[in-house]
Amino acid sequence: MQTSLVTRAISLWKKLFGDPLRAFGVVSALLLALLAVAPAKHHFSEWRHYQKGYLRLIQGRGDAVTLRRHFQGGIQQIWHPELGVTDRCSSCHLGLKEASLTDVSLQPYRKHPVIPHPPEQFGCVMCHRGQGAATTVTEAHSSTLAWEQPILSARYIESGCGQCHRAGVEGTPQLNEGRALLARYGCVQCHTIKLPEGATMRSAQDAPSLVHIADKTTREWIFAWLKDPQAYAASATMPNFKLKDEDVRDISAFLIANSTPLQGDNAPPISQKIAHPAAGTSLYGESFCASCHAVQNAAANLVGGNVGPELTRIGNKAKPEWLRVWLRNPRIYDPKTEMPHYRFTDRQVASLESFLLAKADSDFLANVHLDAATPEQITHGKSLVMEYGCASCHEIAGIRKPENFAPELTRIGSKSTSQLIFLKGMQHTLPDYIAGKIRQPRAFAPGLKMPQYSFTPTQIDALTTALLAQNDFAQAMPPSLAVTAPPGSHYRPAGKAGQIMNDLACFSCHAINGRGGDMAPDLTWEGSSVQRKWLEDFFRNPATLRPALIRRMPKFNLSNEDIATLADYIMTVYQTPEFDRDSMPEAGYSVAQVEQGRQLFYSKYACQSCHIVDVKADKGYIGPTLTAVGSRLNAAWVYQWLKNPQALRPGNIEPNRNMSDEEAMSLTAFLMAQKGSGKKESKK
Amino acid sequence: MIRKRFSPALNILCLALSLAGTGCTRKTMVAAPSASAFGSTIIESSGGKQIGATGAMLPQPWVVQLNDDQGAAVAGAQVSFGASAGVSFDPASGVTDSSGQLSTSVTLGGMAGRYQLVASAVSKTQKKIELKTEEIALDYQSRLGRLLDDRYCSRCHDPESTPERVSNYDNLKVKPHAFTEGDTLNKMSDADLAAIIGHGGPALNKSPLMPPYGYSLSKTEIQALIAYIRIISDPPYQAPGMVYAQK
User: Fold this and answer.
1) Residues in B touching A110 (Cβ below 8 Å)
2) Please, what is the Cα angle at A421 between A415 and A425, to 5 degrees?
3) With an 8 Å Cβ cutoff, are B57 and A620 in contact?
4) What is the mean predicted confidence (pLDDT) over A423-449?
5) CA–CA dist B196, A416 (Å, integer)
6) Which B positions 151-210 lie with beta carbon below 8 A of chain A?
């Protein structure tokens, strides 16, 4: 058998190579065949198949000539050695730059949507992930043994922007929301997220201190809250730790036992005779409490702001003696609170107190019956508080904030999938893992501590996007490419006025010198803008300037002395260096000038579309009412504002009209002539 | 477009992996839950006509309700969702709950534009019943346009006025066009729209109540606004070059 094989092989050898000429012929044929392998591979490569398909696609189109002129055959490459970009995606994705291919939905020929950076600037992989140098569909898009990063789903595409743009950019709402959620829901209290500049991501707010918690609320409320924070307030920030009843009993026992009384944070009842529940309702409205606090209405919709806690069931939570002091001056219990010190009278405090305490759900604590705590329960409670890292967010006497309590997430967006444990039935990709962890953290293994949040699917997508942006590339970014956030401002007004402003929590709504909220106008240059008399009157009685606004400045019952101090400070310190506020007179403009201003106001510039000067005729509800603008604003400010509103308040929506000096002067004359009638214009 | 050359080998690999307990990413067929009830019409409860982003989940789920001839909700009936390519539903089909409703999260495709969604069910007589709605996906540029519209334009161009968001529409003598008014706006070229946004109403002999934004907005921002106006317009906008390009 073997011998026959050998003989046959020998005879074949002789047949092919027996004769030198024949041998030469056979070897040449073999060589040619071998040489043909490379061109054949080239000819049958995937990208050539797609390039032929593209040519077929454009053939019948009206713009075929232009498209064919743009077409370049062969492997195309975007190469940026300094960024590590070698992307050959455009070898198949041939229509990326063709503006006229808007109607083509077939991949890989689709036109790339308009984005601020053209694809050749940073390549494709920087945002889309995948393997740029690959020239086959599978290798470029999927994860292979040698390449872990598959193409990133379009739903997380904004994470690419976040690698360079450390601060929010306008065009990436999802990324911005994700980052805001990381800060707002205290994710970064347990998980460290380092920013490439060396800073760490900070939480937006500190959770309430629990040092004096027993003064504020009862053990029963703490029990119910810990069992399910969202049952008390649907908008609660605190997640659900899914604790057992015994554990909640012990934690509440510890927190109450550990709480120390604070001097002066509770007060005896004010005579109920002076309290008036109806007055409480209107005072809640007049004080614009709803600008910051939300309450659920009859239709179960939340109405109000989210700066302060939801008040739907505040009567179940707050102890009356504590609430009284809090309403009188919240800074006694919490010196850092964002709530203003309203300077309410006793009568007002009593009315608000009875109004707020009535906001209770009689069933809420009905099933909570706790026996007196035993020392063992308290000790066990303390160990649970340490185990769950409660002190990461809350200040608790005797327990230090734990360091590195949860895994660091600085480079989570580059985590290798081989290091991850996936749930059954889950897609084995990093985004799916991150989203799954946020959705159901406890499902991944028994005994995990991360609590259950009640995020919506959209919020989970936003958080995943923000976390995917925290990757190796972002950390190794050349500094020239990074767009960093402007440094946060720590501006604090000085002196007596500074104390009053802190007491009134002006910065909760107004921004000054880069610090503060965006609910109300920026006051950085308020001293250049308004007249002193108006400012004092406004403090005394904050009449609204914008008829359409729901959120308005509350009345603070300020003393004349405080008003004078504030007005002095604002008029001297908050001055723009751009112009001299005394450079233009408040009155004394000629009748002709005023008349020309009126013409410009009503005809050429049609200012009445947004502003009201004549209450009977004008109906503009967008900008502030100008009926008494001559008694409110400084003339030089009005003039400069007309010339360029955004130069004085960046981001203001009043369009810049590019008007001439003369026109601006006439309009200033007309506006400064609007002194108001002296009495209230509307009694609505 | 991904070639499936080694699918038998892949299947064996999957089998081996799942036997080893690692799990596998391949989709397995799930038996559809059997439905016992039938309705005659599908109505929309919420989530139609939303504006979302390309490739992203819509902000609100699409909730449909199955009713019988008397208009009463039908629980326990099978409803399935479908749409043009690129749209995905979670779940893609299901059984209506006790109030006759079924909710699904919708993720739109990668192309900016309109997507038609269809919810379908079978009536007692095996007739197919359907409900259609449209959702709009915005790409980067039109989304930027939407942000600008929200900040500047909608304060007058939005006919709906709410306490949270007051619109000046009713107060203006000359009514602005809502951006969805395709009948009017589709007749205007991009250049016309850019002129009216940049130079104000008088640039095209229109009302001076429309101020010029050319000194406040950049060219890119004006282009973004136009892209947004085009994409939400109803009836849909057809770019003039398109007919020619498609021949």
Assistant:
1) 110-111
2) 115
3) no
4) 90
5) 52
6) 151-152, 155-156, 163-164, 166, 168, 171-172, 207-210
Q: What is the ipTM of this complex?
A: 0.85
Task: State the CB neighbour count (10 A cutoff) for residue A517.
Answer: 15
CA A484 to CA A128: how far, in whole Å?
22
Enclosing H/E stretch for A468: helix A457-468
Average pLDDT, chain A: 89
Are A402 and A389 within 8 A, CB to CB? Answer: yes
Q: CB-CB: which of B147, B216, B227 is closest to A170? A: B147
Query: For B55-97, how does the pLDDT look when each residue is reduced to its tens digit (9 = 90+)?
Result: 888 989 999 999 988 888 888 889 999 998 889 998 899 999 9
Residue with tokens 């540029």: B141
A55 touches chain B (CB under 8 A): no
Residues A227-278 pLDDT 10s: 999 999 988 999 999 999 999 999 999 999 999 998 887 777 777 667 676 8
**Range B185-213 burial, b when 16+ CB lie within 10 A, else e:** bbebeeeebbbbbbbbbebeeeebbbbbb
Bridge-partner residues for A87, per DSSP? A78
Q: What is the DSSP string of B91-139?
A: SSEEE--TTSEEEEEEE--SSSEEEEEEEEEE-TTS-EEEEEEEEEEE-
In contact, A393 and A207? CB cutoff 8 Å: yes
Contact flag B244-A62 (C-beta cutoff 8 Å): yes
* Alpha carbons A466 and A165: distance in angstroms, whole number: 11
Q: Which CATH number covers residue A633? A: 1.10.760.10
Please indicate whether, in this complex, the C-beta atoms of B211 and A461 are within 8 angstroms of each other.
no
Domain membership of residue A635 as a residue range: 591-672
Put simply, the chain B residues between 1 and 30 with a CB less than 8 A from any chain A CB are 1-3, 23, 25
Q: What angle do CA A435, A438, A439 make, to 5 degrees?
A: 85
Q: Are residues A360 and A441 in the same domain?
A: no
CA A592 centroid distance within chain: 51
Provide mean pLDDT across the span A533-547: 85
Q: Are residues A234 and A344 in the same domain?
A: yes
A63 touches chain B (CB under 8 A): yes
In a domain, A398, yes or no: no
3-state secondary structure of A51: helix
Residues A281 and A354 sit within 8 Å (Cβ to Cβ) = no
- Phi and psi for A304 in degrees, rounded to 5? 130, 180
A580, A594, A600, A625 from A665: Cα distances, Å = 16, 9, 11, 20
- Going along chain B from its start, the domains and CATH numbers come out as 41-138 (2.60.40.10), 140-240 (1.10.760.10)
Q: Is residue A77 part of a domain?
A: yes
A145 vs B: CB within 8 A: no
Please report, for residues A4, A611, B199, B213, B216, the alpha-carbon distance to residue A657 in angstroms, rounded to integers and kept in the order given. Answer: 101, 15, 9, 8, 8
pTM: 0.87
Confirm whether A401 is domain-assigned. no
Q: How far apart, in whole angstroms, are the C-alpha atoms of residue B144 and residue B138?
A: 9
Radius of gyration of chain B (CA): 24
3-state secondary structure of A342: coil
Q: Smallest CA–CA separation between B225 and chain A, in Å?
A: 13
Chain B touched by A40 (CB under 8 Å): no
Q: Is there a contact between A453 and A438 (Cβ–Cβ < 8 Å)?
A: yes
Angle between helices A346-357 and A277-286 (to 10 degrees): 100
Are B168 and A621 within 8 A, CB to CB? yes
Give which of A103, A143, A421, A667 to mutate to test B binding, by max B Cβ within 10 Å: A103
d(CA A93, CA A76): 10
B57: β partners: B107
